[in-house]
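hey can u run this one w/ 3-iodo-tyrosine bound, need the structure tokens asap thx
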Amino acid sequence: MSDTEQSKPETGHAERHDGRWAPIHGQPYRSVPYRPARMAAAESLAHAAELRERMDQRRTVRQFSTDPVPPQVVRDAIACAATAPSGAHQQPWTFVLVQDPDIRRRIREAAEHEEQISYDGRLGEEWLAALRPLGTDEVKPHLTDAPALIVVFQQRYWLGDDGTKHKHYYVDESVGIAVGMLLSALHLSGLAALVHTPSPMRFLSEVLGRPENEKAFAVVPVGYPAPDCEVPDLVRKSLDQVLVEV
Ligand code: IYR
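ok here u go:
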């Protein structure tokens, strides 16, 4: 590229930052070849069967060891989650990785305060009855025992340089897919996790100092199961029950 070209970037295109394409909303469509090598059917079958088996071993964990986890494994899992597809490729997510014990303690205190009110009746009898088989209650030791918390925020809109609010599309779906990918990445990397949804979650924005366009979606404690960890004796629906082929 000549100096002249460099000093005059094509208007509207993504800008280069540190040599990488930065996601700029409103950039024009630009395509690049996508030609992944096709996997032989036998290899596909083997991968699919192995993945199915490994994913079936994933369990939601509520009793964590306080042992540290390699932070880079968690960062890599977050990077995997951030490859999720999103409405209009707006990538409307922020992942806050909390390892600081004092911030985890403040999150636990605030979450337990809200959960106490929820379990004391705010959820309603039908909801409480649905939760009873899982044995959950307002005490949330995982928020301080797990060495890392990933607090996932949805960006409900984005702010233009002039402060104008611009809508994001399919935010729930996009962030939900990203969290699914996060859980898969953590599990396949050997870490246990839980999707915790304290309600209401506004306190997370305050404790973590997040901007107004972000809304907390879930808290994902990450770590190793405690040595005496137990999980509910769940039975998953069979493939027949969840798959309809026409
Ligand atoms: N947010 C509460 C209640 C809760 C709700 C559902 I739906 C669950 O599957 C589990 C718990 C809590 O975290 O305890």
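Residues 1-17 have pLDDT under 50 and may be disordered. anyway lmk if its weird
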